[in-house]
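Researcher: I've got a protein sequence and the SMILES for pyridoxal-5'-phosphate. Could you write out the 3D structure of the bound complex as structure tokens? I'd like something to compare against our soaking experiments later this week.
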Amino acid sequence: MSVAATLPNATILDAYRAATPNSSAMARKARELLPSGIVHDSRNFDPYPIYVERAQGPVKWDVDGNRYVDYFGGHGALLLGHNHPQVMAAVHAQFDRGTHFGACHELEVRWAELICRMVPSAERVRFTSSGTEATLMALRLARAHTGRQKLLRVRGHFHGWHDHMTSGHANHFDGSPTTGVLGGVADAVLLVDPNDIAGLTRLFEQHRDIAAAIVEPTGSHFGRMPLKREFVAAMRDLTRASGTLLIFDEVVTGFRCSPGGAQQALGITPDMTALAKIVSGGLPGGAVAGPKVVLDLLDFAATKATGKEKIHHPGTFNANPLSAAAGVAALEIISTTDACARANAYGEALRREMNEVLEDEGVNWAVYGDYSGFHIFTNPENAHITPGKFDAAEFIPGMLTRKGADGMAGQLRMGLLVNGVDINSGPSGVISATHGAEEQAATVDAFRSTLRALRREGALS
Ligand SMILES: Cc1ncc(COP(=O)(O)O)c(C=O)c1O
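Model: Sure. Here is the predicted complex with pyridoxal-5'-phosphate in place.
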């Protein structure tokens, strides 16, 4: 039963506290041990986050027994939902055979074969242990291949937390180094605003020595600030003309927008692709995919033949057998079923229904997004918008990436938690192929109840 039903007149915060005493106790202990009590910045939540005990398909349960429709989706890794039976069977079987052989194994070959078959830009693959490592390697490969130093990125886009890609993601939008990063590293990174084709063109005119341009192809945070296709196409044209390698960061969009990722959905093929999350079926892992001529910089024989310096690349858990087993099982399902299409269709229906709730309730927000994601624009500056017709790309990037000086994202998220739905702090959500009619109805109801509770509390006009 939802907390909202048991405590109809409580404030959202009171209801949250009443429903989650075990989470509260765990958070108290965690704060003694972990900075902010958390292990990933996105779990920072006032007054404390929920602690989850188990999950299945599209739902999860916290340590107090509360059930949630899950839109965190393993940070996007779980297109197939929690504990997909085929993925679990593959992992269990591998678990019994061994978790690390310190040796080559058959699954890594099968895994690479699937990636090369599914992802248009993939001719060779190198596995990593995370998306951060995948973008780091893609950028290093691009520098080594082109012999150039500079990198170009889009403001607000996230490519992991390594030194080259920290400035200009959440802050330091002027490109200055974030704390702990060397000035020289940040100096070599050029920033462009999303959808600013003129600015992009200028950067390519001014800088002839750009090794790589990297982009989240559907926009930052899975389209929270959407990119227009024309901008991505301009990136493709300008990089090709200037000998710069175009890298798609498909850590989120890969195997999600379509079995071949955003590049297949957009019909624009980059030179290299960074992959993680879905690629390893919900277990840790990542990969860089690209042309043989570039990935050959990791190849002993090829570099010996060309006289080039080989890029050294170890990594204890690269393509470890458990991740490989999960990845192979997940990619086989995605390549042979309509999993992406089902999740995309749910996304479209959910966004439409949530916008209908906004219109019914007279709330001046909008729910938008593409593919299997949704974003809630809480309109902190009360701009004139129509929920179902909101064109997020027309709004200035800053407006969307500011979470709302009114703190609405947190209140909304807590209200939804109290009503049995977990979204991320965007406020946004990612959808799995296991979300169905029941979850959709529950989400729409929870959204309506939350809006009414926010209004009762005076947080909404
Ligand atoms: C677009 C994008 N790139 C890179 C990363 C980093 O991946 P990881 O967390 O596996 O290091 C993420 C993680 O959320 C991401 O969303």
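Model: The domain at 3-82+339-456 is CATH 3.90.1150.10 (Aspartate Aminotransferase, domain 1). The mean pLDDT is 94.
Researcher: Great, I'll pass this along to the crystallography team.
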